[in-house]
Amino acid sequence: MLVYAALLALASAVFAAQAPKFAKPASAPDEVSANYVGETNGTLPKARTVSGKVFDRFTQIWLENTDFDVASTTTAFVELAKQGILLTQYYALTHPSEPNYVGAIGGDFFGMGDDEEYHIPTNISTVVDLLEAKNVTWASYQENMPTDGYLGFNFTQPNYLNTSAPPYTYYVRKHNPHVVYDSITSVPSRLQRIRNFNDFAADLNASVIPQWNFVTPNLVNDAHDTDIDFASDWLQFWLVPLLSNPAFNDNKTLIVLTFDENETYGINNRIYTLLLGGAVPQHLRGTTDATYYTHYSTLSTVENNWGLGSLGRGDTNQTMSNVFSFVANATGHKNLNISGPAIPLTNATADIPGPLNPEFYVPFTAPNVNASGAGGGSVFLAPGLNLSMQPSTLPPP
Questions:
Q1: I need a surface site. Which of 27, 50, 91, 247 has the fewest CB within 10 A?
Q2: What UniProt keywords are attached to this protein's entry (predicted)?
Q3: CATH number of the domain within which 215 lies
């Protein structure tokens, strides 16, 4: 153990000595760049806007592995918080990264406890099914993903931060939740909505950014391979100017800036999360909200806003899926008051039973068909689903 700690300290010291300095990957967020490798594949089609009760566009931006107290004292985040609502009791679902991403669009991480390559079967639904059922458009924008719908485990390219250095892996599959679900990757029209940042620039300039978006910066800009100051520089370059661009942020846009998980596994998994955008009421900007939320709350909030169905998983877990308060107050949704010792511990890793955990394996089950979601719609049942496969009928792990 002492040897491991010494090696870890040495590696950290070497990394610190070689830590890269932020450089703009493009001249501006609305400009294409050779640093993104893949050329734009045209733009998404223009679609009719489906009006929501509180917002018409929902964009979430995920950063990496940072404790709440670290982010909350960083200058860029302090300044951004003046423009939005800081959620002081928002928690990730587990450790490490990938299960949090998977859970945020599917309502479960299915016991996953690592960052390996997984393929979740086609009969397991996601938020994409709920959105498409109501004609709400969507996209995933992945910085430095080489081509639309790329299914590779990662992508290594010339190092734009240091052209004399070896090639660098800027893109990883584990931060791209949509490619983990076969219900998305098996449908060509869905696959083309998993796009890179050159596509983002094209969609932005054509004013066709969809109504629901998932944005993942590359491994240096999201703080995974760097630190919170590096990510802050990226936010100043990318997000701050976009807040003034009506093609990205208008008066019916809600932006969620969050992290996948905290860095310190020994404490509960509280993460810094900020609500921004024109949909945030003026009188609430610069305030805090101490309601208990998790990544499942992004699902329930979207369901509540557009009157969607549900997935019958974590998005209908009353404890863990409170709707963002300013939205719930506007729609009349009743949240569950969770605080103090009642807040669940979500900092465990690899010990949750599920079909993606070989140590505690149970098969994929059907969703809870009797669940009641924040959108009021019925539970989505994917084709080919065996409804007899319920948690109550399965043997122990």
A1: 27
A2: Hydrolase, Signal
A3: 3.40.720.10
